[in-house]
């Protein structure tokens, strides 16, 4: 799930030539007053990756176009990794050492074998499969499986920072081009949490972002696209006015502000103009 710098520059050049690229804030304002959003485009980034600052931000400045980045507040300024990256790191280590699925914890090994997944043939397929099967487990089961996995291959300690820090956040915000929203504290799947914990993930993330940036935080993106009606109620109570899903589609005057659709763009489906057009148009 990445886009190369060259592809991203091509995307921005094309979008700026054919659309009115506006901020998420302006989109909400237009919808509120019934102003048209035809041929408008909003750029958003989830999680708060450091490469947003290193690679995307210079291109956005070059073209003078706005974007919104949704921050996983508890990870910003730390060397913590999301658990899918930890899975990838561990399985890559298995592959490099010439080991087989037999060295993996039982909670993972059994299910992979049942699905006919072979580490020896495809590391990518194996990684994707492990990530998906762990998403389906309860938070407690997932934590236990990750503990077993990291104990088997050692705790990550390479000191590599993958997420933004707050100085980078403030620098981007100071440009006037980048808005910041919430993506929870810990990128938790909100529909799997008890109400109190889900509310804490939502409310604490907003408080941290507002404290660190000095700006009101009113936009939200659902981690992994997981949410329920209860989640929407929590957002309303916390003061969020707009939330983005992972549901594919276009925003229209009839769209619900706390369930806006998006079109996800990755390198494999957007590395040329025809592919990008197909991604934007095809349903």
TrEMBL record:
Chief place of localization: secreted
Bilayer-crossing regions: none
Domain NodB homology: 39-283
One of the Pfam families matching this protein, by short name: Polysacc_deac_1
Keyword Nucleotide-binding appears in the UniProt entry: no
UniProt subcellular location: Secreted
UniProt keywords, alphabetically: Signal
Domain of life assignment: Bacteria
Listed PROSITE patterns: NODB (PS51677)
Keyword Ribosomal protein: no
PANTHER family per record: POLY-BETA-1,6-N-ACETYL-D-GLUCOSAMINE N-DEACETYLASE, PTHR34216
Protein name: Polysaccharide deacetylase family protein
Organism for this UniProt entry: Desulfotalea psychrophila
